[in-house]
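User: Show me a protein chain along with its predicted structure.
Assistant: Here is one chain, sequence first, then structure tokens.
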Amino acid sequence: MGEARYVLGVDIIRDRPSKLLGLCQKAYIEKVLGRFRMHYSKHVDTAVEKGLTLSLEQCPTIEDDKQKMSNVPYASAIGSLMYAMLCTRPDIYFAVGLVSCYRNLRTAHWQDVKRIIRYLRGTTGLVLCYQ
């Protein structure tokens, strides 16, 4: 069967002479971009906006606001980001930690999640290397 090259959405890159092992999730990230219809979004340089503060006070209290945001795939997006974060993308740990604490969300919370996805769009080719 040979050496493994792709496992659970992770590309395995080996360079035996240099004793390097690399892990990349380019295909998985592109799949996430497609799932949330962000293939053609403009990428950003950072996963978190400078000065970002999220709190429970920002969560909606009116039923109309809650109903409006109930169709947003927030939990699915957080789960997708967490999988990428745990496998090969430690650079988004802080950002995902900020946005994953909320259940009742507002439009601002969803915009912050989309910013992380836009950051991943600009950095799909990054490889986590082990030596």
